[in-house]
Amino acid sequence: MRKGAESYIMSACKRYDLAEEQIKAFSRSGVRAKTMLCLKDGPKTAADLESLIGTRSSTILHSIKAMRDEHLIKKTDCGYALTNIGNIQALLLNDLVDCIITLGEHKDFWLSHEIGCIPVELQKDIGVLMHSEIISPDQANIFRCHEHYLERLRQANEIYGVSPITAPGYSEAIRQAVERGAEVELVITGDVLEIVSQRNPDLAATLLKFDNFRLYRLNDRVKVAFTVTDSILSLSFYRFDGSYDIDRDLIGSSEDARAWGMRLFEHYRQMAEPVRMP
Fold first, then answer.
1. Would you say the C-alpha torsion 110, 270, 209, 258 has a positive or negative sign?
2. How many domains does the chain fold into?
3. Residues 79 and 175 in one domain
4. Are residues 51 and 179 in the same domain?
């Protein structure tokens, strides 16, 4: 192990030692953790917490006393509330809970793909993709993913996409969306731009004449393909063997999922260069 790496690991271990007591307090007491999560949204009385947590108020008040001693909770005229420190810890705990649920819902999806293409800050916020759906083929329809994606494009009024791949029907769906007035911004790799230009030499030039269409070229290799519309985030990755997984898309329909997708889009758009009309 390199000296620098060893130094970093030791630093992480020492930092854990400083926080160990607080971290273990969350994991060993569900009442404590649930109380903080409930108070995240505002003050609650003991009766409110009893109803929300489903535990006797005497048990809850015991946990509250300990957290008041630790300056995480305070008593107010409206009941019990988080202190500034308690509120920050509750926000972090909430994000951790959402992250664990998200990764557990589709464990195989996250374990079997290259996700290093997602910036670390967005990986930390992966919990906003909670309750997303995996679209995959079935015995009756092996093209289910492809067809579902094209149908979503046809319905969209806004399309923001990053893609290192192309497939039959994609270019036509984008052309139709632009012509009917949808706002479309695409970041594609140089390889995809070359393929599209060979198959339809006039397509890019034609679409770039529309004010509602913007195209960007990314010279770096990308291992994620995703699209954000006004209704969904569609997300797919490459497998570890280097092949693109055309059979599984993660679909998020929440506002938070789409906002996460737009942050990822901005990350790649900033790395790309605009394609101008010839």
1. positive
2. 2
3. no
4. no
> Sign of dihedral through CA atoms 100, 103, 106, 112?
negative
Instruction: Judge whether 64 and 80 are in contact, CB under 8 Å.
Output: yes
Q: What is the dihedral of CA 107, 113, 118, 121, to 10 degrees?
A: 30
pLDDT tens figures, 47-104: 999 999 999 999 999 999 999 999 999 999 999 999 999 999 999 999 999 999 999 9
H-type alpha helices, the chain: 3-28, 30-39, 46-53, 57-69, 84-105, 107-111, 120-124, 144-155, 170-179, 190-199, 203-207, 255-271
Cα gap 104→143, rounded to integer Å: 26
Answer for the pair 208, 215: CB distance below 8 angstroms, yes or no. yes
Q: What is the pLDDT of residue 6?
A: 59
Scored b (16 or more CB within 10 A) or e, 138-166 reads eeeeeeebbebbbebbeebebbbbbbbbb
- Which of 101, 131, 164 terminates a domain? The answer is 101
pTM: 0.88
**Buried b or exposed e, range 16-54, using 16+ CB within 10 angstroms:** eeeeeeeeebbeebebbbbbbbbbeeebbeeebbbebbe
